[in-house]
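Whether sequence alone determines local backbone shape is best considered at the level of individual chains. Part of our work consisted of pairing the sequence of a single chain with a tokenised description of its backbone. This step matters because it turns folding into a mapping between discrete strings. For completeness, the protein is quoted in full, as a sequence line and a line of structure tokens:

_____
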Amino acid sequence: MASTKTTILITGETGTGKELIAHAIHRGSPRRDNAYIKINCGAIAEKLIESELFGYEKGAFTGATSSKPGKFELANEGTIFLDEIGEIPKEMQVKLLQVLQDQTFERVGGIKTINVDVRIIAATNRDLQKEIKEGNFREDLYYRLNVVPIKMPPLRERKEDIAPLAQYFLERFNIKLGKNIKEIDQQVLDCFKRYNWPGNIRELENLIERIMLLAKGERISLEDIPDEIRIMQGQEILESEKEENNQFEKYLLREMENFTERLVLMARSEKKVAQEEIDDESTVKNEQSPYRNYIKSQTAEVEKRMIEKILEECRGNITHAAKRLGFSRKGLQIKIAKYNLRKK
């Protein structure tokens, strides 16, 4: 992919590393020794974006005292990265479509057609298909850009990347800040993995720089983590536990429904057996009811599973488990002994 001239569209939330991917593609391409021009389409005033992208001729507007090449000319034989492409004005999309189609354009106020050889990489955090439906983005431009789509998942969906990213930022900021911090405690990395990272990689990068700037030792410990990260982490854990509890309640409901169905079947079976043996009173009196035995065994099994599940969620803490189950601590201990649930 990097070795071709194909247009690429990178999508994903803010801070997921779209620009890093674009730069990596350029560095891995035959154009690596030529220009890499980045332009943020959302950071330029609407009236100026055409002259920024395509340049202008002398006298094209008030203040244009000389000619100036645009970003596409500067990126000739190299790569241009159009960040936040979803912010580009609708009227400018037509001219950009022309460049994508035949690599030609005219400067503002000019009549000469300029030919360029540019590899285009675009990125956005918007849903462009939704923007098309709402009339904010041209469909033909979208398909021209979306030749090779790259979807960047948020950091919360790739927690395995947190540790290597944190180490990378540690090494980088050691150089930038003149620090000599050697490692990050495993407790800190575990804390990072439980956090949701709404700002994605950019938030992690800024946090590591902030921590290193204030750190006094040669390692980052849990005490160095800002309170807001730990507080938000705690809130996320509570939400996670709430979701787990909901799932467990659904599980118990399914078990009880299955239990009821089995009871009905057993009741019918027992009724049939009782009718067949109605004349044998001694047998009926002396034999224990299989229906009652089944109720007893199944009730015990459901109770055992419930206690096992809660104990596991509470990591063996009997006090917390008893509170969630509605038992006294002693009552739960008796149940644990009854079902042989003690840790071996």
